[in-house]
Write a structure and sequence with these properties.
The complex is a heterodimer of chains A (470) and B (212). Chain A contains 15 helices and 19 strands. Chain A has 470 residues and is of the alpha/beta class. Chain A is globular. Chain B is an alpha/beta fold. Chain B has a 7-stranded mixed beta sheet. Chain B is globular, with a radius of gyration of 20 Å. The chains are: A alpha/beta (470), B alpha/beta (212). Chains A and B meet through β2, α2, α3, α5 and β8 of A and α4, α6, α7 and α8 of B.
């Protein structure tokens, strides 16, 4: 008999019942809530006279709309303010814990979940946000849902789901020095495409994955959705267990030892069968830079922009032509010749302490280039910010000319005041380079934190692994 | 939820792959706390030449005449024909809300992003994945006044020259859509099973049942 994949195990652990057509009611252990995708769900509960099934399994925070400056003045935009106020009111009315804007623990929902131990190995984790896949780094089954499903989870603590297929992505060998989790995941998306993982849960395995810290693993799983997969997974090992020891919401006392034992089995069996297996040579991965308006339009920093004429698929070719036009770039142009106007270091992909350390290491003792209009560092949470300040990273950034901000989603999706203006080009550590994502007419290049910091210093893209950091 | 049974309608062709939910409904409109009223801002950055803001009156905005939904021959289309990986990116249900509010009832594409696909069914919107060659053939034969009939019950699309194209949909989703049923009400019929699961799980993983 064949063994089980990690996904099979997590799925089976959470099935409440299964219908004849295979659709199942699955139990949700943790529901994260934010201000943008929840108001209509709470309103739905109110209209139907329903209450949350288990209020304590929900944790709320405002992150998408919050300002990253002058927090004491509140939110200037009245529409955004109403949305954040609505979250506050709903959490009080329905008895849900919220880290409000004044709380030091406030931050991006996918940063605070693991940071607090509110999302743990073996859990099912959902949130009305596609980057919920982040939490799969701990061996949790975590995925984004729509607002109707947010309401469903609030009301029933369950979701109706059909099991996805199993996709194994095997990173062969170790990455070169200076190549980060962000480069790994961008290289994967470049290879399999943004629809490559549609219908699958991806498990990432291999030496290069094992070598990543929990934070690096979060970066990889965060962008599983950019490869089309709702959920990404990484098996539990000592790195995982060490990370969750003594987190505020982690199991305590004898529960911890019981949990540790249970979590040890959260890996795919040796004889597990996957529907699809993809191998990637980790040793060949170089720092990545996207050049188009989809994360799959990505190349290594030492390459040139590909020629659409060489693409045989007509739809793809037209997409490339449109992307080049929007991005104001030409086929054959060297990536290192592209100058940037703004730099954004932040987002649920890359705003954790290790990301900030990596960027600070590049920026230390240097100044941002004259053509850089704005270089922003937005920590993922109030606690990440405190930690960074205790290490003096804020000073490093400020002295180099970066702005040091309050935590939130910020310029990843530009729902607050942080955004690109029309035609501006940005080196961004976020996850999406879609048209208009960072502001109307804005042009986004996705990179790692070290690459973003290096672009800020040089004024254009440079290979951070080739520069002397001392 | 509005039920979906039989639909005959004009078809609007959106010839792009990887249409993301940021394009379907840009982020500034997500600040609304309502579920309705997103239709005027559907594909805002492609449909209009000026920059859209929440609560804007769209009747006097500058239209991009080249965009398919602004062409008079596609006015009133309830079926959108598009390319692979439609609805990728953000999980925002505002995307199907905007499509439905605009008047679309069915979307035909070679593939859909998973979260978007799922969200459609909660809003009376039927996403129909068809083989790439079949989608290509529909794009090729689409001329002015082209209509399709979508019959959810028999899971068939009928073209103007009476070609029948079968499509797949989960039984459970089909049943709920045909009858316009509310998922939560149905799931709450299984309250005993959920309680039973919790009792059993609490023995295996008690830390998940500590309320703090």
């Amino acid at each position: 008999m064949s063994g089980k994949t990690l996904y099979d195990k997590l799925w089976e652990d959470h099935v409440v019942y299964t219908e004849d057509d295979g659709s199942s009611l699955i139990y949700i252990d943790r529901h994260l809530v934010h201000e943008v995708t929840s108001p209509q769900a709470f309103e739905g509960l109110r209209l139907a006279g329903r209450k949350p099934w288990r209020p304590s399994r929900n944790l709320a925070v405002a992150d998408h709309n919050v300002p990253t400056t002058d927090r004491d003045k509140g939110i200037a935009d009245p529409v955004a303010r109403l949305q954040v106020d609505t979250l506050d009111k709903n959490c009080i009315e329905f008895g849900i814990t919220e880290f409000t804007m004044a709380d030091a623990r406030q931050g991006i929902v996918h940063v605070i979940g693991p940071e607090q131990g509110a999302t743990l190995p073996g859990m099912t984790v959902v949130c009305g946000d596609s980057h919920t896949s982040t939490h799969g780094a701990s061996g949790a089954l975590a995925f984004g849902i729509g607002t109707s499903e947010v309401e469903h989870v609030l009301a029933t603590q369950c979701l109706i789901q059909k099991k996805a297929k199993n996709l194994l992505i095997h990173l062969n060998g170790q990455t070169r020095s200076g190549v980060t989790a962000k480069d790994i995941v961008l290289a994967i998306i470049g290879k399999i495409g943004t629809a490559g993982g549609n219908g699958y849960t991806i498990e990432f395995v291999g030496e290069a994955i094992r070598a990543l810290s929990m934070e690096g693993r979060m970066t990889v799983c965060n962008m599983a959705i950019e490869a089309g997969a709702r959920a990404g997974l990484i098996a539990v090992d000592e790195v995982t267990i060490d990370y969750y020891r003594n987190r505020p919401y982690s199991p305590k006392g004898s529960d911890w030892f019981m949990a540790e034992r249970l979590w040890q089995r959260l890996h795919s069996d040796d004889n597990a069968v996957f529907d699809k297996v993809i191998g990637i040579d980790a040793t060949a991965i170089k720092p990545q830079v996207t050049w188009g308006t989809s994360p799959e339009l990505v190349v290594a920093v030492d390459e040139t922009i590909p020629d659409p004429e060489a693409e045989s698929d007509l739809t793809k070719r037209q997409g490339m032509v449109r992307a080049l036009e929007y991005m104001g770039l030409k086929a054959g142009q060297a990536i290192t010749d592209i100058a940037v106007d703004k730099v954004f270091i932040g987002s649920c992909t890359n705003s954790r302490i290790e990301d900030l350390r990596a960027a600070a290491q590049v920026a230390k003792g240097k100044k941002i280039a004259g053509n850089i209009k704005l270089a922003l560092v937005v920590p993922g949470s109030g606690l990440v910010k405190e930690q960074a300040e205790s290490e003096g990273l804020d000073k490093v950034f400020r002295e180099a000319g970066f702005e040091w901000r309050e935590p939130g989603c910020s310029m990843c999706l530009a729902m607050n005041a942080d955004r690109l203006e029309e035609g501006e080009r940005c080196a961004s550590t976020s996850n999406r380079n879609f048209e208009g994502r960072q502001g109307y007419g804005g042009r986004t290049h996705l990179v790692s934190p070290a690459m973003a910091a290096a672009a800020a210093i040089a004024g254009h893209f440079v290979d951070v692994t080739a520069i002397n950091l001392t | 939820m509005q039920a979906f049974t039989l639909l005959t309608s004009l078809v609007a062709p959106l010839d792009r792959a990887n249409v993301d939910t940021d394009a379907i409904i840009p982020k500034q409109f997500l600040k609304s706390i309502k579920r309705a009223g997103f239709g005027p801002y559907l594909f805002d950055e492609w449909r209009y030449l000026d920059r859209g803001e929440p609560d804007m009156d769209c009747t006097h905005r500058l239209l991009n005449k080249d965009f398919v939904l602004n062409k008079p021959q596609y006015k009133g289309s309830e079926i959108l024909l598009t390319r692979e990986n439609f609805g990728c990116g953000s999980s925002r249900e505002h995307a199907p809300w905007a499509l439905a509010d605009f008047g679309f009832r069915a979307i035909i594409a070679p593939s859909f992003a998973d979260i978007f696909y799922n969200n459609c069914f909660k809003n009376g919107l039927l996403p129909i994945p068809l083989a790439t060659e079949v989608v290509d053939s529909l794009f090729n034969e689409l001329t002015e006044g082209y209509t399709l009939t979508v019959d959810l019950n028999t899971q068939k699309i009928i073209t103007p020259n009476n070609r029948e194209i079968s499509f797949d949909v989960d039984e459970n989703r089909k049943y709920r859509l045909l009858n316009g049923l509310d998922d939560i009400g149905l799931s709450l019929q299984h309250t005993d099973k959920i309680r039973g699961y919790e009792a059993e799980r609490a023995k295996r993983a008690p830390w998940l049942f500590v309320d703090y």
